[in-house]
């Protein structure tokens, strides 16, 4: 086994890899950008090397600088994490050519699986069932449209070089095809520098089922069962679990065997994931699961597999990279219980899930569950990188127990002033349909209204705030307590008056929360929500979210990539005004109310700072 390891990544995955590396007695080396000088992954490593400015292209994505850092520190091995250079075959080759150990997939396998169209062709040849569609050379818009017509709508246009849910458009009717194609190409060119696409039949009642595979240099390949990642928003995973709900032994056998076959077809070594899409309209069936793509790296959601198998997949990666045989044979692996993971993002679900950036003045993550994170209280969430703050991972004997644990864990998250999706996660994990296992990739979109807290605090939250102000029988204030439960007032009822209406609320069960002073303000943390409050009432967060004056500001630094309206045009509430690209995603900015565009300040193609006026809407006179 090598003695030192450089992790060519940042954030939670760098910290995750260091944890195992330290346990195995390796010397750990971090690389970091100027924006990450004080980042947790830098603090946790034995050594750290500055590799460039904040922009990923000039630091984490600059293979030359990463390699130079490895040489300068005498690192013997390089782990790429996920994202960044993890699926860059040229980088893998350069690492190997420099005489270092590459803790990743063989460059040839990365290449074979790197483009979705080529990967599908390879899988067809290997006898693995693939999602029906067009993946030809001819990229002319008319040809693509004709192919989409032939496949039959709805179809999904996908960037062949795509990843991370980007560069994908669902098209429901022929007349929308060219629009979808254009926007997909634009996103693909910006994100991947390659605007070629393929077209797939859009699978209805789709479930995302993936299989963890592992290979070693001695020709062994095993699978570590499946994960279900159907809980997605805009094709990005939000909650993942293992095993998959409703999985039968026959279907598991079929899908895991197909995954092993796929890995063997490319001579796979190390950790990889074969992703499948299932038509679950009649439950999971072996003849309705198709290969979608292979991710030739460790996956974000690998902890759920670790939980149910009791294995440390990073340790497996390091051992395999060092030339050892796989730590377990197939028959030594078994599923124990149920695991779920939720991705805690710095984003504001109440404002269309826009990323939220800033300093984490308060960051308390739940105890008693596994938390993988790359930040601590006081750290900064910047606009340069992925907005994931942490992953919450739970493990329980049954799926139901795991869901309860996950909902509780998400509900205990306390973050301020950065906004998070914690309350959204807590609600999703407690949702009746979710708990019953009725999941598909449309689950979040269908239920979004109930899953997203309003911009005004609910009655229950207001009651909790009122309860926090009620003097305690012993003369102290509830706010003195680290956590309060508002079940002490007489009869367990809390009376509050909201907008002249009196409410009496049964407090015992629902009103658990905590009040903390953050940056001089009292914040009520409850069910994953965070509300600043003053005497007697909870304030609505950010006045701008509630009472818009019609000025649409850029919520973060980004680039205006398309404008959908003209000056003077009439718009209706919710209508898309423009598209902003920030944090590697496109974000639609919508009209706050019905009215007219009186000021169109945004210019397509321009970079904007945070807080810049993009559009001003004047309301219709009543
Ligand atoms: P990425 O490389 O961005 O991960 P994938 O091809 O893995 O792209 O697809 C991401 C997600 O998009 C899937 O998890 C699934 O939710 C959805 N998806 C992909 N292909 C299809 C399809 N043919 N029909 C329906 N949904 C799909
Ligand atoms: P998974 O299937 O594991 O969710 P994704 O395709 O969503 O994989 O991407 C994995 C992670 O890689 C993302 O969560 C993100 O942090 C990171 N990532 C994806 N694309 C990029 C990119 N272009 N640059 C940096 N990081 C990226
Ligand atoms: Mg994928």
From TrEMBL:
Residues 1-449 form the Biotin carboxylation domain. InterPro entries: ATP-grasp, BC-like_N, Biotin_BS, Biotin_carboxylase_complex, Biotin_carboxylation_dom, Biotin_COase_C, Biotin_lipoyl, CPAse_ATP-bd. Its cofactor is biotin. Its EC number is 6.4.1.4. Residues 542-618 form the Lipoyl-binding domain. It is an enzyme of class 6 (ligase). The keyword ATP-binding applies. PANTHER family: CARBOXYLASE:PYRUVATE/ACETYL-COA/PROPIONYL-COA CARBOXYLASE, METHYLCROTONOYL-COA CARBOXYLASE SUBUNIT ALPHA, MITOCHONDRIAL-RELATED. This is 3-methylcrotonyl-CoA carboxylase alpha subunit. It comes from Brevundimonas bullata. The lineage of its organism: Bacteria, Pseudomonadati, Pseudomonadota, Alphaproteobacteria, Caulobacterales.
